[in-house]
Write a structure and sequence with these properties.
By secondary structure, the chain is mainly beta. It contains 1 helix and 9 strands, in the order αβββββββββ. A 5-stranded mixed β-sheet has the order 1-3-8-5-6, with no helix packed on it. A 4-stranded antiparallel β-sheet has the order 2-9-4-7, with no helix packed on it. Keywords: Signal.
Length: 137
Amino acid sequence: AVIMMIKFGLLLAGFAVMCFANQNDVKLDGDNWKWVMENFSGFNLWTRNETFTITTDSDSTIMLSCKEIRVTKRKGNTCPEGKLTFNDGVSSTTYCGSQRNVEIHGKTSKMVVDYVIPKGLGGVFYCQGKAVRSPKS
């Protein structure tokens, strides 16, 4: 009975790992652009859920520049198949379909980017980020 409980526990743990997103932590320092999310090749699709937590110093905000965002979207639907959501704790913006040269200006020193994609689908997105210091008065 104990062996069966252990096997069941391992099965549940494995299922939980499959359902949750892969976690990526990125720290931005200074006014230099840094790759925070990248998969340049269309052959290298993001095919599983990903979460990127981007942070910087508490007296700075985050700026992201995404050269390209391509996430599966069927005609007429509003992002049910896959989406890329940027949330700075104050507001959030969601993208799907195809966009180029997207700029996101966060209002806080932390931004969480969630990529949700159903099994068997994929997307391409690559973004650089930098810390932006508020001018001192």
